[in-house]
């Protein structure tokens, strides 16, 4: 078989036909089918007995063959970028018998590229940034465009780049698409955003080449090249002398053309450091002047401060100094209440002091320049019982009611000092009531004491102790003895243990509850303070029947009833004991 339609022809000795490669231009726009070439077999005597059969990619749809003549056509317009080549097979067949005259022969149809695709950028737009004040030639970004045409055939896919918009600020390398800065000292403060339009043109940029464009949005990134500046050279503020420590005196403002952390500022006072301090508001970057120490108009009526502002973060490439300003502060006079000489007073008075006794004195004065006289008074809200009074002119505090330390050991009162116009100062006065030995010691509890009928002489049946409402400086010391007039000396005795306790001892070897079931023993307790105080305390002792171990078995119920000092709980317990024993 012979193929006509291409420059390259191969001959085969074993077969009677020839085949080759066919070439077809893409994007054919004619009205008729596009002619590709002709297939012919040496077996074909052109008498109409041979037909040609086509198979393979696109056979019958994209490519058709005239079965009689072997003419090959493309039925539609082809796009190389979709498919660059097609592989097909052809054979010659005897029409009458259907027998293959030639076995299948494979050939290729290659689509020839034309420049029908414009370059396309991989992004649109590009977003890029570069530091302001960057050196000329600093790399900003690289753009890339691709062309779908055949890079191996001609210059259809060979792209060059150029700037349509963005000069003289930026330049682009035609072959690489690298964008660089082209102008020195570009400042963000003058212009922050640039829109650069880049063109990519194929055919090496020659006339007739196709083009594509993209936009590159370039932002100048701030560097710290602008120092802060005060908006005023002198600031004036007025503050009352009564202003609280920590309160705001005023705001000073500085501006910085930079942004972000490059615009963060720090303020400081360069001279007077004791009375005021300055800090930075993190949101507004204003300097906040704060009162550090209490003011006193009578001592100082005005202040002049030198302040300085600097950037927090400095760029070593730019040697910048901050800015300075003067702050003048005027202190306003405020009519202040009287001030006491001491912030608090502590006084002492004995609890047996007579009414009218002077306890102590307070002193206050008007701190203002006029030095108005003051009058003193006790704040009755802190002394509802009117225990104390004060001399209105000299501040002497004296007693107006009797005291009892055991009832109240401390009195906390507030004394007022008032000016003529009504301004009032206050001071706390803490009055300690000193103890006087005016309370006698007593038993510290109610004792329920028993003695067995069968006992021994000198046996301890109870240990008693005492308590005293007084508080002697050296502590309590109590002495115990049996009352001298007691009729029970022959029955019981008292032994002082020298440790503020005493033992009650038996004086007999036996007691009979049938003869006498109840004893009242008077115990005298004396304290060791001056003047000594004493009291007689009666100890009730019941006679009970006991077992050999000394445990109570039976007591007379009448004995319990006679003890008026017994608690209800004790009586119930004893009655239960009796019921159990019975």
UniProtKB/TrEMBL annotation:
UniProt-listed SMART domains: CA (SM00112)
Protein name: Cadherin-12
Membrane topology according to the record: Single-pass type I membrane protein
Location within or outside the cell: Cell membrane
A GO CC term assigned to this protein in UniProt: catenin complex
Keywords: Calcium, Cell adhesion, Cell membrane, Glycoprotein, Membrane, Metal-binding, Repeat, Signal, Transmembrane, Transmembrane helix
SUPFAM superfamilies xrefs: Cadherin-like
GO MF, any single term: cadherin binding
Main localization category: membrane
Organism of provenance: Clarias magur (Asian catfish)
Gene Ontology biological process terms in this record: adherens junction organization; calcium-dependent cell-cell adhesion via plasma membrane cell adhesion molecules; cell migration; cell morphogenesis; cell-cell adhesion mediated by cadherin; cell-cell junction assembly; homophilic cell adhesion via plasma membrane adhesion molecules; synaptic membrane adhesion
Matching PROSITE patterns: CADHERIN_1, CADHERIN_2
Cadherin domain segment(s): 41-121, 122-230, 231-340, 341-443, 443-560
Organism superkingdom: Eukaryota
One Pfam family here: Cadherin
Transmembrane segments: 560-581
Keyword ATP-binding listed: no
